[in-house]
Design a protein that fits this description.
About 40% of the residues lie in helices and about 15% in strands. The protein is of the alpha/beta class. It has two domains: about 5-45 and about 270-360, Aspartate Aminotransferase, domain 1 (Alpha-Beta Complex), CATH 3.90.1150; about 45-270, Aspartate Aminotransferase, domain 2, CATH 3.40.640.10. It has a seven-stranded mixed beta sheet, with helices on both faces. It is globular and about 55 Å long. The chain binds pyridoxal-5'-phosphate (PLP).
Length: about 350
């Protein structure tokens, strides 16, 4: 029998729930809003579709392994050289590359509880121990405690800004505090999957790449504000030495030619992205008003979702279930380590209005 390593045995395999279409049919829903995935229900720009169509004709050719055109555009947007950019099949894939590129046996990742679940999964599948500290009050990353928790084994610190699923933000001062108080032989990974949304919500939102620190890597994605989660394209920005190491371990031909084309199309239509982030900003305010009226406690969010604290697991589960019966699909956060909370992503204008009308 083929033995499966202990760390892989301990991972829980993904168990897909019932497809949404089936639930809609079973419940006989006539209207619904799918707000449980932190994607972008506005969908992709037409420019993306155009670029994919053009690229599809050359599907018999391998993609450009260096993604030169896409990286050039990303570099121009971020005022850097293409050597400061690596692209891959979503930012999750770049994150996975970090373990092969940077970690030696015995080195650890330091982060908080209640952050992006894939972080714990990819660390474990790469046999990297994760030191976890609790979130601070307000479901924030606990910067003081992160600094105090660095040990000689700490290779990297992961923070998501804003955090998923809590929505909380690390401010400019807090990020500087973290970077200034950690030795520069510790890598600081700042996951900015919701960067485009956060930037228009708060002037105090820091762009971690702008700091140009040799031990900071910034993760970004086309999955959220650009609306192409299904295509799988994301990137990292950082010091060219670190980016080169990541480039060495990523799959040679990732991302695909269609994904590279989609990323190019997305960047050619910044107006579409801007429409998404402004719609989200309005939606968050609508959600806050509705949650306030319903006397529910929420964490102010800097992403495209809001987390509601229902205090008890049973209540959180029941609320998610009841909302589903009404056609509103929201996420109970048990699997995220926050069983007393639910998360509601923002959607289209019509979906947001439907959520508000069904909350009462
Ligand atoms: C914090 C965070 N990072 C990364 C991702 C995944 O991004 P990608 O689709 O680029 O892999 C998500 C998606 O939910 C996220 O919330």
């Amino acid at each position: 029998m083929i033995s499966i390593p202990q760390n892989i045995q301990e991972l829980v395999s993904y168990k897909p729930g019932k497809p949404v279409a089936q639930i809609i049919e079973e419940l006989g829903l006539t209207e619904w809003a799918v707000l449980w995935n932190n994607g972008n229900n506005l969908g992709p720009s037409l420019k993306v579709l155009e670029r994919i169509q053009e690229a599809a004709i050359t599907s018999h050719k391998y993609p450009d392994p260096a993604s030169i055109q896409l990286r050039t555009m990303i570099a121009a947007n971020n005022n850097c050289e293409i050597d400061n950019v690596v692209v891959d099949n979503g930012s999750e894939s770049v994150f996975d590359c970090m373990f092969r590129a940077f970690f030696k046996a015995g080195e650890e990742l330091l982060t908080c509880d209640g952050t992006f679940v894939a972080v714990y999964i990819w660390a474990k599948s790469n046999k990297v121990p994760v030191a976890r500290i609790p979130l601070a009050r307000g479901y924030q990353f606990d910067i003081d405690r992160l600094i105090d928790s660095v040990t000689p084994q700490t290779k990297a610190i992961y923070v998501a800004n804003p955090n998923n699923p809590t929505g909380a933000m690390i401010t400019k001062d807090q990020l500087n505090q973290l970077i200034d108080n950690v030795s520069d032989d510790v890598l600081i990974i700042v996951d900015e999957a919701y960067y485009e949304y956060a930037k228009v919500i708060s002037d105090d939102y820091p762009d971690s790449f702008e700091l140009r620190r040799p031990n900071v890597i910034t993760l970004r994605t086309f999955s959220k504000a650009y609306g192409i989660a299904g295509i799988r394209v994301g990137y990292a920005l950082g010091d060219s030495r670190l980016i080169e190491a990541l480039s060495k371990v990523k799959m040679t031909f990732a991302p695909s030619n269609l994904a590279q084309a989609a990323g190019i199309g997305a960047l050619e239509d910044e107006a579409h992205m801007h429409k998404s982030v402004m719609l989200n900003k309005t939606a968050l305010q609508q959600f806050y008003n509705a949650l306030h009226d319903a006397e529910l406690e929420y964490t102010p969010s800097f992403g495209n979702f809001v987390m509601v604290d229902l205090k008890e697991e049973e209540l959180a589960k029941a609320v998610a279930e009841k909302m589903m019966q009404k056609g509103i699909f929201i996420r109970h956060l048990k699997a995220f380590g926050l069983p007393h909370c639910v998360r509601i992503s923002t959607g289209t204008e019509a979906e947001n209005a439907l959520f508000v009308s069904k909350l009462v």
